[in-house]
Amino acid sequence: MIAGGGLGGGLGATSLMLQERLSLLNESLQGAEQREAQVEEAQRLRHQRHVAALRHLTGQVKAALEKIEEGTYGRCDACGREIPKGELTREPATTLCPPCRGHDAPSD
Ligand SMILES: [Zn+2]
Asked: Is 69 part of any domain?
């Protein structure tokens, strides 16, 4: 199967993968938000953290998809440098290079 749409270099596949992830995240987020009304007070804080993490991930995936559309995918949001390919393979939704995320680039 070939994903076209003018996206060269296999970005079509990345885009599809991110879209799939986005719909999964949206489902989890919806379910989590519905449960939020039912959980006990003691669980609430933990649950809110879970929902916040899901929202964060959803935002990242959306941003990555937007970057694919704009043709800026793979470039760091903060410094504008190219994000190492290994990073993108490991985490396709990443929008920051390792130094800007506060990590040093892995030495491999
Ligand atoms: Zn950077």
From this structure: yes
How many angstroms separate the CA atoms of 53 and 9, rounded? 30
Ligand 1 centroid–CA 39 distance in Å is 39
Residue 80 has pLDDT above 70, yes or no: yes
CATH number reported for the structural domain that contains residue 57 in this entry: 1.20.120.910
Residues with CB under 5 A from ligand 1 (ion): 76, 78-79, 97, 100
| Domain span at 26 | 11-101
Centre of ligand 1 from the C-alpha of residue 65, in Å: 18
CA of 106 to the centre of ligand 1 (A): 14
CB 95 within 8 A of CB 76: yes
Helix (H) or strand (E) holding 23: helix 11-36
In a domain, 58, yes or no: yes
- Per-residue pLDDT of 21-66, as tens digits, reads 999 999 999 988 887 777 677 678 888 888 999 999 999 999 999 9
Whether residue 107 has pLDDT greater than 70: no
